[in-house]
Every structure is written in structure tokens, then in C-alpha cells.
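Researcher: Go.
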Amino acid sequence: MFERVGEKIKGWAIIVFTLMMIASFVLAIVSWATIEDGEPYYVIGGFLYVIIGPLSAWLSSLILYGFGELIEESKAARKMLQIQVTGNNKDGINVTNFEEQLENIEKKENNLFSDEIVSFK
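Model: Structure:
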């Protein structure tokens, strides 16, 4: 339930974006479909839904996706710090320079992103 939280938040960001986009276009169509003679406000309202709806969907999903990315990167930074302090990690990777550490973290990403608490000795 609480594993890979960053990935889940990023997934929800995509779902929220899609739903908000669909809702804004549906609202615009409904607004245009209910136009009566002499009422230009529905036309203007429909165009506002088409313009402002996608922009707000993009902005809100961007913030949510960025937060998910921040969580994933903080987990990677925690693992990098653990490797630098101890010289190896719980997966048995023993590296001496930064480039090798980055490569090993990218290769073993699923194993390194466990929710275990890091303890330094």
C-alpha cells in the first residue's frame, strides 16, 4: 500500500489530467448545446471551458507529477547517501566512485527503492 508512492502519485497525476481534460470539453459542449437566442454568454462560457480547463488540468497535474518525482528522487538520494557513508548497501553493491553508484542504482532501481529505514553505523 505504501510502496512506490512516487510512482502512484505520478500515475494519479496522469489520471487527473485526463479526467479534467474530458470534463472541460464535455462542459464546453454542454454549454454550447444549451445556447438560446440572444444569449452569447453560453458561447463565451464554452470557449472559457475549452481554454481554461486544459490549462488548469495541465497545471494541477504538473504539480502532482512533480511531487511524485520529488518523492522518487529523495529515495534515490537516500540510497546514494547510504552507499557513500557505508561503502556498500543492503543489496551488496560495493562501489567507490559516483558514476558507478549512479549506474548501479539505475540498474537495480526496483531493489533499491524499498521502504526500509536506513541506519548508519
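Model: Confidence is low (pLDDT under 50) at residues 117-121.
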